[in-house]
Amino acid sequence: MxxxxxxxxxLALSVYAFIDCISTxxxxxxHMPKPLWAILVLLFxxxxxxxxxxxxxKRQPAGAGGSAWGRGGGRQQWVAPDDNPDFLKxxxxxxxxxxxxxxxxxxxTD
Length: 110
Prior knowledge:
Transmembrane segments: 36-55
InterPro entries: CLS_N (IPR027379)
Number of strands: 0
Structural class: mainly alpha
Largest sheet: none
Domain Cardiolipin synthase N-terminal: 12-56
Distance between the termini: 83 Å
Protein name: PLD nuclease N-terminal domain-containing protein
Oligomer: single chain
Membrane topology: Multi-pass membrane protein
């Protein structure tokens, strides 16, 4: 079992680092161009992966402010609908439109 873990852990780390490297925007990469980072991760799986995770990518704090969907300039984070002011505003607008439509169709008005 230990032999399998000694093989799978570095493999999983290098696969994660490689996918993270190639999916990262060019402006978020530090110190070297993206192709060099990808080659480093592929040629030296353990050292390259750890290097990429530590020094290769600009990281942002988890609580960085921003818009309702993309809190910060990096990865987008999902926001629950009841915390999204744009969604709540659209609900109010839908209610107003429905109320106006019902008032136009109401047969009791003379």
